[in-house]
Amino acid sequence: SEAALYFAGQGMTVVGIDNDMRRTFFGDDASTHWQRQRLEATLGARYRHYDLDIRDAAAMNQLFATYGTDITLVLHAAAQPSHDWAARDPQTDFGVNANGTLNLLEATRHHAPDAVFIFTSTNKVYGDTPNRLPLLEQAHRWEIDPQHTYAGGIREDMSIDSTLHSLFGASKVAADVLVQEYGRYFGLYTACFRGGCLTGPNHSGTQLHGFLAYLMKCAATGTPYTVFG
């Protein structure tokens, strides 16, 4: 929603694809329907919403064909984002995260090949490898050795192999590599952002995903916060 507001503010028409599957994943508290209503009310004709599923290749192809080369940017933030949920239903998780990404890449390649394609990947593509970095005990916390090559942050040269990713992480690895490959093989203008624990004032945080927003919600409402593990 923040990106929609930003680009609409730059004079662009924003096309949103969201079938509120987050509600299916995590319940009513996680619904994004209120965000759709807010964007439609705030942006008016500058925002066009489509209640579509990115797993539906035909629907994605038809939608992209409608706008064609008028599409200048594809910001792909759709996902099944929970480790626990992925373990309960690996096929749906992979269908959304990997196959859905492939459908968007194909639609972009055929109908808007000059568009920039930005994928919100995840730091989980690295699996448990970051947990093996050398840490030094400080007065109040542990810090990475300041002389280590990753002291300033993890770069793309950290291996994603021989590590435990979770099923969610594995489906996002597949999507991440697909996005890179479409850039290198087909020449699309692709980029992957490997974020973690992304949040903000408009995040529909819930127990299984969005813990920072959910933690603040619990603190504000007096709801007990359950720690698993």
How many H/I helical runs? Answer: 8
Low-pLDDT stretches: none
What is the annotated CATH architecture?
Answer: 3-Layer(aba) Sandwich
Based on Cα principal axes, name the global outline. Answer: globular
Secondary-structure element order, N to C: HEHHEHEHHEEEHEH
Strand content: 5-15%
Rg, Cα atoms, Å? 19 Å
* Major β-sheet strand ordering: 3-4-7
**Class by alpha and beta content:** alpha/beta
Total number of β-strand segments?
7
Termini gap:
32 Å
For the biggest sheet, the summary is: 3 strands, parallel
CATH class term: Alpha Beta
Instruction: List the domain count as a whole number.
Output: 1
Summarize model confidence as the mean pLDDT: 95
CATH superfamily: NAD(P)-binding Rossmann-like Domain
As a percent range, the share of helical residues equals 40-55%
What is the third-level CATH name, the topology? Rossmann fold
Structural summary, described in words:
There is one protein chain. By secondary structure, the chain is an alpha/beta fold. The chain has one domain: NAD(P)-binding Rossmann-like Domain (Rossmann fold), CATH 3.40.50. It is built from eight helices and seven strands, in the order H-E-H-H-E-H-E-H-H-E-E-E-H-E-H. The strands form three sheets. A three-stranded parallel sheet has the order 3-4-7, covered by helices on one side. Strands 1-2 form a two-stranded parallel ribbon. Strands 5-6 form a two-stranded antiparallel sheet. A hairpin with a 4-residue loop joins strand 5 and strand 6. Helix 4 runs parallel beside helix 6 and helix 6 runs parallel beside helix 7. The longest helix is centred in the middle third of the chain and has 22 residues. It is globular, with a radius of gyration of 19 Å. The mean pLDDT is 95.
